[in-house]
Amino acid sequence: MYKLLLCWRYLRTRYIALASVISVTLGVATMIVVNSVMQGFGSEMQDRLHSIYSDLVFASVSLEGMRDASLHEEQIRKVAGDQIEAMSPTVVTEAILNYQFRGNWVTRQVELIGIDEKTQSLVSGFGRYLQHPANRAAMSFDLRETGYDVRDHQSGPEAPDRKQMRQAGWERRREMARLMEFQRHYEQRRNSAGSNDGAAVQLPPQQPGAKLPAQQAGEKSAKAGTTNTGPSKAGTTNGAGAAKARTTNGDSGDPFGARMFPDMPAQENVFNPAKQQNTGVVIGIALVSYRAHDGADWFRLLPGDDIKLTFPTNGQPPKATSDDFTVVDFYESKMADSDGKLVFVPLRKLQELRGMIDPTTGVGQVNAIQIKVKPGVDPQVVRDKLQAAFPRELYSVSTWRDMQVSLLSAVEMEITVLNILLFFIIAVAGFGILAIFYMIVVEKTRDIGILKSLGASRHGVMGIFLGYGLSLGLVGSGVGMIAGLLVVRYINEIAKFVGWLNGRPVFDPSIYYFYKIPTVVLPQTVLCIVLGALAIAVAASILPARRAARLHPVEALRYE
Amino acid sequence: MSKGSAFKGRTSGVRHQRSGLSLDDARQAASPPSDAQTLSPKPQTLNPSPDQLLTIDLHKSYRKGATEVPVLRGVSMSVRAGEFLAIVGQSGCGKSTLLHLLGTLDAPDRGEIYYGGRRIDNLPAAGRDALRNHDFGMIFQFYHLLPELTTLENVLSPLMIAEGVWTYLSRRRAHRRRAEELLGLVGLSHRLKHRPRELSGGEMQRAAIARALVADPKLLLADEPTGNLDQSTGVEIIRILRDLNRQRNVTIVMVTHDLSIANQADRIVRLADGRIVE
């Protein structure tokens, strides 16, 4: 009883000892904040990685892939059907993406994935990362009329609007088609004018921005097979009209295109970019966008625009083949790695283009089958089961963790190293407690003698100081815990304030893919930190407490 | 020791006993259980001797650097139960050392100490702690109150040491009543909540006496209890001790250098040069 009472009184009367636990407080608070933020980043990343990849990937080892997806799916169901929720076949290949931006061709290396749009969203978070609400509900490779998200649906209110997305959809496509048509007419008229009276010689050189879309238009016409623009039309337009067109041809909002050629014949057998689309494609958002320092995203092209993809066929040896696609949506998982690399096209179309369809049966080959396991089922168990059932030489089964093991383990190691370093801070605080405790024991020497003369045992005296250390640790780590949790709770406000003080943002959204600092507070981590700090505080008080316990009562009583 | 029963002052009814041990024992046995019965039992010895405290040829020396300074050189003395004994001597003659040995705060180099017929100088630490807590009450020249605790808490501290948290809490009302009663006895009822530094020297010494009595000891060891007090306060303190000895039959061993104080005792022993001289 006296131990409790004395601990309590010492706690309330010895403020210098409280000062010594401030370092414990700070250490605990720092550890909680750092762990929460790292955990937040880590779990956000895992979340995104996990939703990019399915739980399990059942892949064919050979490049040719497996002949019949549904047959394999049936076999897989036989092995582990009760643990599997959904499956989706995919074809994966390297590809080159080309698109035009301000007249320049942009080339990107991408990973081209053929997906089954009906089942893809069942096995992974693919659907969640699209920019059109209807596509998120049910994916389609058909271009939507309009209605793409202007506000990033995955970010909070602080993310700036993506104003460009208002134009996205058929609206944009019609606009671009009109522009292109206008351009083509202009080119033709210039050519014919040049051959007729040489007037084009006086024309100023074309702006580069106008030239290349014209080339693209040319290709488009070539693809359609015929170009039908009556030379009579070129004849009817006069030089003044041409001049006008020249001044406005860079403006996508050009009102003249529609008015100038109102009587263009619509030919159903000809590809009409204003009414028709190429095969739909979903491309990673980072392939075509960049982020300004205020966090606003700017797009080099929008849903509705066409791109070109070049990829190898499935033959031996592979040859390059390419085709035009129309962007129907953006994929934004907020993992720069995926957003800047992945391009999704319909599985069937990709199989066709790569020659993966058996001409006799019409069944397409696939590279892999993505598998989602039922909730609560450990993917590793299913992986081992499947791997055991299918020959290792032909098929490999891996979980999403297996595929990202280097990244995940790097993050885990970072957390571990940080924790070790931070724990040293608390350990240093322990030495502070030790020193101050030693002083307190010296100061209390006489009291210790009194207690012993009243019959207090060695253990009792030791208990006072151990208990004192424990209560200091409790106070220090308790305050630290509350402070840490508060900082975690208001970390974005704090970051904003610090950014305001510095004059530059702490958390630059153009560098990180998050608008907010993600945090996850794991109760068990907090508990470990607090217990660790308590253990250090108690450990630091052992030496002084032993000294106190060993004091000779007579000498202690004489101590002045 | 035995008749620890000598004083079970928890109830006012037994307050003014002056009876001898045997009578006291008989009365105790005959009386209905009072809250005095809730006290922890005292160790009993089988054959109590009239000598409550007995020392045989005690030697003690202190080391000062390389030289050994002998303080006690063969002290043999005895204290009878219910006696008020004063040990007098010059400063440095070893009186305090002797008292510390009697109170088991220190161990003699040679010689034996018996308390109620039981040898105590070689008891293990736990036994000596219990003895100091239950059987001995100590009063010091410098009062030695704990500065963090109030007067009342200081008086209660031996009980807190004796009992665990739950036992103590379950009996705290009785303990508190007893402490207040003892503080009333020494005239400190109005100072219960004061810290020691807010008390005068006399008040502190009276609080220390109350503390020494709270565990109901058989033996009070007083080390220069008036050494730091002015004449009149010292006289008052001695009067309290005197009354305790007479009314409660508490055996008192007091060390002092002041003969006028010592004269209040039943018997005086003079210590000189490490030996009893008369």
Can you describe what's shown?
The complex is a heterodimer of chains A (560) and B (278). Chain A has three domains: 199 residues, no CATH class; 214 residues, no CATH class; 91 residues, no CATH class. In chain A, 52% of the residues lie in helices and 15% in strands. In chain A, strands 2-3-9-4-8-7 form a six-stranded mixed barrel. A two-stranded antiparallel sheet of chain A has the order 5-6. In chain A, strand 2 and strand 3 form a beta hairpin. Chain B is of the alpha/beta class and 278 residues long. In chain B, helix 4 packs across helix 6 and helix 7 runs parallel beside helix 8. Chain B is globular and about 50 Å long. Chain B has nine helices and ten strands. Chain B has one domain: P-loop containing nucleotide triphosphate hydrolases (Rossmann fold), CATH 3.40.50.300. Chain B has a six-stranded mixed beta sheet with strand order 6-7-8-3-9-10, with helices on both faces. Chain B has a four-stranded antiparallel beta sheet with strand order 2-1-4-5, covered by helices on one side.
Structural class call of chain B reads alpha/beta
Q: Biggest protein-protein interface?
A: A-B, 25 and 32 residues
Number of domains of chain A: 3
Low-confidence stretches of chain A: 198-262
The mean pLDDT of chain A is 80
Count the DSSP helices of chain B. Answer: 9
How many independent structural domains of chain B? 1
Distance N to C terminus of chain A? 27 Å
In CATH terms, the superfamily of chain B is P-loop containing nucleotide triphosphate hydrolases
* CATH-defined architecture of chain B: 3-Layer(aba) Sandwich
* Order of strands, widest sheet of chain A: 2-3-9-4-8-7
Overall strand count of chain A: 11
Query: What's the overall geometry of chain A?
Result: elongated
Supply Rg of chain B: 18 Å
What is the H/E string of chain B? Answer: HEEEHEEHEHHHHEHEHEE
**What's the oligomerization state?**
heterodimer
Mean pLDDT of chain B: 79
Q: Order the strands across the largest sheet of chain B as they lie in space.
A: 6-7-8-3-9-10
- Whole-angstrom Rg of chain A: 35 Å
Number of helices of chain A: 20
Query: Proportion of β residues of chain B?
Result: 15-25%
